[in-house]
Amino acid sequence: MKKIFPQLTSIFLGFTFWGAGMVKLYAGHQFIGWIGPPWLVERLQEYELGLFAEFIAVSQITIGFMLLSTRFKLLGSIMMIPMILNILMVTVSQNWAGTPYVLAVLLLMNLYILWQYRDFFGPLVDEGKNGGNLNTRKEKSRQGHLVWLAGWSLQLISVPISFQNLTIAFSTAAIGLILAILSFKVDSRFTRKIETHP
């Protein structure tokens, strides 16, 4: 249970922000997700900030995908802090009732994930000195990273496809998510080879 809860927290946060980014960019906002607003790009386009809104959406997709796939929980959680705080400032300045409280809960969940990696922050602050205090984690391979990167790329590729065919777009995004999950299998295969054939 000690390891499962951080994983579930990562998946929930990842799904939340991945879906929020995808719904902003998909044709007709036809994507799954529970937080919005899906019309952000159109609204900011009125102020010539459409490109900025698209950047926010792509950032949400990327950071959310890191957490959803659980491959880059630490990096995704670090990147999530400024994203949530920026969104929080927008909601406060716009007087959106309730949304700041939801974001505060999501921020706390993100801080919980970061707490699981607290042994990594000493070397960041001390710029490299860790005294051998890092907890060991499962080793990852370059091949696994490449498979994950292919899965992330398919998320972005599915966006323009959604304007032609939603079924193919959803399938492309799903294949990308499956690839990201399978990247752990690729790791175990290649790290085992390295151990047996030094």
Automatic annotation (TrEMBL):
Keyword vocabulary terms for this entry: Membrane, Transmembrane, Transmembrane helix
Origin: domain of life: Bacteria
Membrane-spanning residues: 51-68, 75-92, 98-115, 146-163, 169-186
Keyword Transmembrane: yes
Protein name in UniProt: DoxX protein
